[in-house]
Amino acid sequence: MTTTKAKRTIFNEDALLWLEKSPVLTGCSLVTSLPDLSEFHGLTLFQWKEWFHHAASLTLSRCSPDGVTIFYQSDIHHEGEWIDKAYLCQKAAESLGQALVWHKIVCRIPSGEISYGRPGYSHLICFSQNIRTQIALATPNVLPQSGEVTWTRGMGTEACRTACQFVLSHTSTRTVVDPFCGHGTVLAIANALGLDAIGVEVGARRAKKAKQLRSSSFTSSPQAL
Q1: Closest CA to 88 of 59, 111, 114
Q2: Among 219, 170, 225, 156, which residue's Cα sits nearest to residue 29?
Q3: How far is CA 108 from CA 24, 143, 147, 168, 184, in A?
Q4: Taking the complete model, does pTM exceed 0.90, yes or no?
Q5: d(CA 207, CA 162)
Q6: Is the model's pLDDT at 167 over the cut of 50?
Q7: 68 phi, psi to nearest 5 deg
């Protein structure tokens, strides 16, 4: 039996420009994490919220109708108020008529511990035009850990595996696209599960790492999970 190796393609360019010039990505699901306000110098909170809504809407609009868009987002604390990024994603999806398929909480630190500055959890939130799930096929709503990360704001391997496994098991799409791929953890996990992957990263160093990162770089290989 011959096994075809999963493919990976990296584009070293601005994610929004890449998405804007792309048609709907037939046969693709999207798994990504949109940047925080702290990653934009000079933007006010209002301006960042506008950027976030545009970026989320653009990401959702490029997903294949038979696929899903999954966001991994951590809320932020700004001048005494919390900004709920799951809510921002929901607003973008509703504006496009896409349904919330599921919403999971991912523990970044053990339950019961206090975190300062950043919440001890992240949102893993899935939207789709056509995909719906059956109650009998439900999976846990709370992930006890996010998994290994390549940098402090990176998406953990457990969160990536949960997202990519859903794409594999519940959609007909066989390519995962991460338009804000960073070091490429989503891409590495997707490839480990046999899915092709496309990443977009504006930073040249991160784009290079995204080309090279493999699931074997992590202590727990997603293939064994």
Answers
A1: 59
A2: 170
A3: 33, 9, 8, 25, 19
A4: yes
A5: 23
A6: yes
A7: -135, 155
